[in-house]
Structure formats: structure tokens, C-alpha cells
Amino acid sequence: MAKERDLRERTMEFGLAVLRYCRSIPDSPEGRHVRGQLLRAGTGVASNYRAACRGRSRADFIAKLGTVIEEADESDFWLDLSVRAQLLSADAAKPLRIEAGELVAIFTQSQKTARART
Fold it and tell me: Which of 66, 67, 93, 111 has the most CB atoms lying inside 10 A of its own CB?
């Protein structure tokens, strides 16, 4: 239970950090597009993890963890794109990219563990 609570808080903090990052993206056509996509993916990590914790079965939990992994990986993509498109600096994106990668690794391992227990 403590791990679940820690990950709930960690994913929530990631979502909040993404929100703050997105406030700095310029209001241009490409900036609005990247901002919208990143907002959806970054906040989706927390909301989908919360849904996974409410899974009705182990299979449901495993499937929902897959969505969490996809959202974290997609967040990293949009962060990378924001840097490559020169919307924000690599330094601004770096902590979020590290956290997105760590979340992908954590939830991938969690999914593997849950699968092994079925």
C-alpha cells in the first residue's frame, strides 16, 4: 500500500510539473499543438495510474498499467520534440525527461511482475 501511495504522489507530481512546463511553451501554432499533446500525456500518467489501482482484476490492472507506460513514454516524446523544435531549452526539459523515463521503467517492471504472478 505504501508503494502505491508513493507512486500516486509521484505521478501526480509529474503531472503538476508538466503543467508548469507547459506554461512556458510559446503561444505559437506549433507551441499550442505540442502543449496540448504534452498536457494530455503528462497528466494522463497520474489519472491512468489511479485507474489502474482501481482495476477490477489482475488482467485489468495489467492492461491499465500498459496505458500508464504509453502515456509516460508519449510525454517523453513531446518533451523531446519541444526541445528539438526549439520551443524550450533542453535544460528545462531534462528533469521531466528523466522522470518520464524512470516512470516508464517502474511501470514496465510492475507490469512484468503482475504478469508473472498470474
Answer: 93
